[in-house]
Design goal:
This protein has helices spanning 2-21, 55-63, and strands at residues 69-78, 84-89, 94-98, 109-118, 129-140. It is α+β, with helices and mostly antiparallel strands. A hairpin with a 5-residue loop joins strand 1 (69-78) and strand 2. It starts with a helix and ends in an 11-residue tail after the last strand. Keywords: Signal.
């Protein structure tokens, strides 16, 4: 008997909440003017304030034209997107190397590299700025990981 009474009370309370939720009176709503979330304006350039620029990109955008740079850093092998050789400069800037001679395909090789940064070019690697390599000078090969033909 006690169980049946508790069950009846619980059912009544549940029914009360269900009916209260279905009432037509909605005192808790606020009129909100709906504005489009996205607008298209052909004459405005997209804002890129949220993307921090590297020192090299700032220098390139200030001068208006790209110029050759010489950087010191490490060639590293990255296994994403099928594998590629990248370059991490001493200041931490990252580059995807374009036209790197195969004899420099050595993970951990420390080099001085000269090339043309191409900040507006995108690749499938999406790893830093693309650097079109003109010349490479080996500074230290003692930190190479594995052999040259491992990748």
């Amino acid at each position: 008997m006690k169980f049946t009474r508790t069950l009846s009370t619980l059912s009544a309370v549940t029914l009360l909440f269900v009916l209260a939720g279905c009432s037509n009176e909605d005192d808790t709503t606020v009129d909100v003017k709906e504005e489009p979330l996205m607008t298209e304006k052909a004459d405005e350039k997209p804002q890129q304030a949220f993307v921090p620029k590297t020192a090299e990109q700032k220098r390139l955008s200030a001068s208006g034209e790209a110029s050759e740079v010489t950087l010191t850093g490490t060639i590293v092998y990255k296994e994403m997107e099928g594998g590629f050789y990248a370059f991490i400069a001493e200041n931490g800037d990252r580059y995807t190397l374009q036209k790197l001679d195969k004899k420099f395909h050595r993970n951990g090789l420390i080099v001085k590299i000269t090339g043309m940064p191409m900040p507006d070019l995108m690749t499938i690697t999406q790893y830093g700025t693309v650097l079109k390599v003109d010349s490479v000078e080996i500074l230290d090969a003692s930190r190479v990981i594995g052999n040259a033909s491992s990748h």
